[in-house]
Amino acid sequence: xxxxxxxxxxxxxxxxxxxxxxxxxxxxxxxxxxxxxxxxxxxxxxxxxxxxxxxxxxxxxxxxxxxxxxxxxxxxxxxxxxxxxxxxxxxxxxxxxxxxxxxxxxxxxxxxxxxxxxxxxxxxxxxxxxxxxxxxxxxxxxxxxxxxxxxxxxxxxxxxxxxxxxxxxxxxxxxxxxxxxxxxxxxxxxxxxxxxxxxxxxxxxxxxxxxxxxxxxxxxxxxxxxxxxxxxxxxxxxxxxxxxxxxxxxxxxxxxxxxxxxxxxxxxxxxxxxxxxxxxxxxxxxxxxxxxxxxxxxxxxxxxx
Amino acid sequence: xxxxxxxxxxxxxxxxxxxxxxxxxxxxxxxxxxxxxxxxxxxxxxxxxxxxxxxxxxxxxxxxxxxxxxxxxxxxxxxxxxxxxxxxxxxxxxxxxxxxxxxxxxxxxxxxxxxxxxxxxxxxxxxxxxxxxxxxxxxxxxxxxxxxxxxxxxxxxxxxxxxxxxxxxxxxxxxxxxxxxxxxxxxxxxxxxxxxxxxxxxxxxxxxxxxxxxxxxxxxxxxxxxxxxxxxxxxxxxxxxxxxxxxxxxxxxxxxxxxxxxxxxxxxxxxxxxxxxxxxxxxxxxxxxxxxxxxxxxxxxxxxx
DNA sequence: AGGATCGATGAGCTAGATTTATGGATGAGG
DNA sequence: CCTCATCCATAAATCTAGCTCATCGATCCT
Lengths: 305, 305
Description:
Two copies of one chain form a homodimer. Chain A is of the alpha/beta class. Helix content of chain A is 40%, strand content 20%. In chain A, strand 9, helix 7 and strand 10 (225-226) form a beta-alpha-beta unit. The longest helix of chain A has 33 residues, at 62-94. Chains A and B meet through helix 1 and helix 4 of A and helix 1 and helix 4 of B. Chain A binds a DNA duplex through residues 1, 20-22, 30-38, 40, 53-58.
C-alpha cells in the first residue's frame, strides 16, 4: 500500500460512529480483524494513534478527532464528485447505443437505426465485428448490442429481434466452371469447397454457416477457415474456393473476378438477429427491437434474390 | 479493488499534465502499462472514458476534463489534511519520548529523566519491559529507547550511553545455608542453581546474565528460566534457587524471606545501557545521552554495594 | 474464580497490484 | 509505398497486499 486509502477513511468514519470494531466490520462487510488492520495502517501512515482502544472501550484520540473533522468534508466532496461523474456517465450511456454489425454493415438496417435515432433521442454508434468473433464484443460489454447471423445459443445473450430471412448466394470465381451456368442447385455444392468463418465463435455457429451435406446426402467440403470477408473473396477469386454469402453483401461487393450464383433448393436461408446481453440490457434496446419489428415485420429485407 | 483509489486520481492528474503515458509512469515510478491499467480501471469505475487516446495522441474527453476539474480541489484538500495530520503527529512525537526500563524502573535514572524533561520541553513516558524481551519493543518502534542490561550486540540497535557498572548481589532464601554467612565468594556460586531470564532475547544476552563457571572452573548451574522478577523472587524464597540481581533492585525489593548477599570476586558487574534504533533515532535521544553523561559521568550510580 | 466480550495478532489463502514482454496502430521519412 | 520508430493496450507471470480464520490476552460482569 503506497498511500492513505479511501477505504481507510471510510473505515475510520464508520468506527467513529459505532465506536465498536465488530459492528464497524459488519457495516462495511469486513471481518473484525480487517477493521483492526485498516485502522492500524492508517495510524501508521499518519504517524500517530487516532483511536484509543482497549477491549472495553473505543474512543477517538484528540488528534484522531481533529483528523476526522478535517477529513470528513473533503471525503464527502470526493465521494459526491465520483457520484456526479458516474451519474453523468450513466446518463450519457442511456442516450447512446453502441451496436455492432457482424461482417458488413447493410444500409437496409442502418436506415432503420437512423429513424430510431431521430425519433428517440438516442445516439447510435455502429461498429464492425470481426467475422470469427460474433459474440465477444457484446458479451464483454464493448457493445450494447449487435446484428449477427443466427442461430445464437448463448446463455449470456438474448435475441431481441429476428430479421426476415434472406436467400444465400454462392460466390465463385468468374473463371470457375459453375460461373458459366445461369443458376445452380443445392446439389452442385458438393463439387465446391466452401469457406467458413474461423475464430472464437462457438462451433455450432461456425457449422451453421455451411450445410454439412446436400439434400441427397452428398457431403459438402469446407476445408478452409477465413477471418475476414475480404480474405474470403480473395480466396474465391483465386478460383479454388467458394463462399456462401447473403444477398446484401453480394449487391454491395461487386468484383469482376467473382460471380454470385443463386442456389436453387438451398433450405437454410441466412437470418440476422439483434442480440444483447441477457443481463444488463439497455432499456432502449427493447424500443429498438419494436421499431425494427415495425419496419421489417412485413416488408423490410426481402427473401428474394 | 473495491472503490476508486487515491492512486488513480493522482495518476489522472499527472496524465492530464503530461498527456503521455510513458512520462506519467516515469513521474509516478510505475511502468507504462500500470498507468494504462490505472486509467482504464478508473474509467471502468466512473463508467465512461475520461481520456481519449490513440498511439499518437492523448487528450482528456469532455467528461474527463470536467471530472478532473471537480476532483482536483477535493483531492488536494485531502492531501493537505493528511500532511497536516502527520505533521502534527511528527511534532508531537518530537516532543515525546517513550522510554522503556528493563525489569524495574530505578529512581536514580528517572531522576535524570525528570531533569531532562524539565530542561528540554520533552515529555518522557516510561514503560516497563518484560524480563525475557529486552530489545523487541525498541526494535519494532513501540518505544523510542530503553534502558537495558548490556551487552547488546544487535545491528538494529545503538548503545547511546553506558551507565556506570554496579555490583551484583546474590538473592537467596533466608532459610538457605548461605544466608547465614556474612559474605560469600564467587566460588560459592557453584553450589547454587541460579535463575536466568527466558524469552525472545538472544542467547548471548541470556548467557551473560549468569556466569558459566567460577574463576576456579567449577560450573555454575542455571537450570531454570524466569519471565518476571516476581516469579524469580518467588522461586528464590521457595529455597531451591538463587538469583543474581543488581544493587538498586535489592534496595527496593525488601522481603523477609529473601536475603541479598554481596559476592566477593564476581568479575562481571551489571551495566545498564541506553539503547535506541540505529536507524530512525529521535534527535533528542542524543541530547538525553549527553544529559546522562553529565549526571552519571563521575558520580551517579556507584559501583559500591 | 469463571464466563463473556472485545480488540490484537499470526498464519495462510486469494485476489489484486505491478512488471515484462509483446502486439497493433499511427505517423514520419526515405 | 514501405519501413521504422513511437506509443498505448493486452497477456502472462510474479509478487505483494488484502482479507479471513483462529486464537490470545485483557477487561468487565456476576
